[in-house]
Amino acid sequence: MKIQYLLVLALLLFQPSNSVIAQGQEVCPNSGNGWIKIDNLNGYSFTYTADEGYFVAESCYKASTNVVYKTYEPPQQTVVITTVDHELSHVSVRVVETPEVTSTPEITETPEQTATPTPEITLTPNPTATPGDVITEVNTGTSGLPLILFGIGGLAALAIIAVNLFRKKTVI
What we know:
- The protein is of the alpha+beta class.
- It has a domain at about 20-100.
- It is built from two helices and seven strands; from the N terminus they run H-E-E-E-E-E-E-E-H.
- The strands form two sheets. Strands 1-5-4-7-2 form a five-stranded antiparallel β-sheet, with no helix packed on it. Strands 3-6 form a two-stranded antiparallel sheet.
- It is flat, with a radius of gyration of 27 Å.
- The two termini are about 25 Å apart.
- About 10% of the residues are buried.
């Protein structure tokens, strides 16, 4: 049972990047711009299949006070919407027409390829600084290692807290 709580917690912490979560009394769109709303749901999963000629481009669901929007790129014929924290109360999907597939024109002539000369690269050594020189260095980014370590440390801390919460206490 403890592992299930930790898995649920991990799933909540690492939502996909194309989802946006809002909280409060907000509700999903119910009409206009291709939105279709399905009310009075229950359970943790809902599957929607668009009518022939249409695809789902976005979805929105409400579970308790959480409202979650998701974009599908490319749009999908069928989407499965799931939540783990609360049961679904309603779902909205924005459908778009299936883009027409146009045939590509036949190429009858093959252009002749010409070789592109490779530019010559000359390495020059870094100049050494002399007293009084101002040396500037531009940081072009950092590795993601500190962020990964921070995330692992946070999960470890949450696991320790969860274990302590569910540990049986014995009184002597």
